Amino acid sequence: MVTLIEKGLSCTCIFLIFLVCTSGCLGTDSQEAINDTVLNFLNSFNEGEFDTAFSYYVGNDFKVPVSLEGMFKNRDIPAGSIQQITLKDITVEEDVAYVVADCTVSIFENDQVVGSVQKQIYFRTQKSGSQWIITKVNFDTPISQSDTALINVTVSPTHLDPLVENAPLIGCVSICILVAGLIINKNNKSGGNSGPSVDISNAVPVENRTLTQFIKIMPPAQCPSGQSVGVDVWVKNFYQQPYENFVIIATFPTGVNVKKATLSFGNINPGESVKRTWKVTPNVPGWVAIEEPTVVFEFGGTRYSGQLDQAWLNVQ
Question: Which region among 3-7, 12-16, 280-284, 300-304 has the lowest average model confidence (pLDDT)?
Answer without folding.
Answer: 3-7
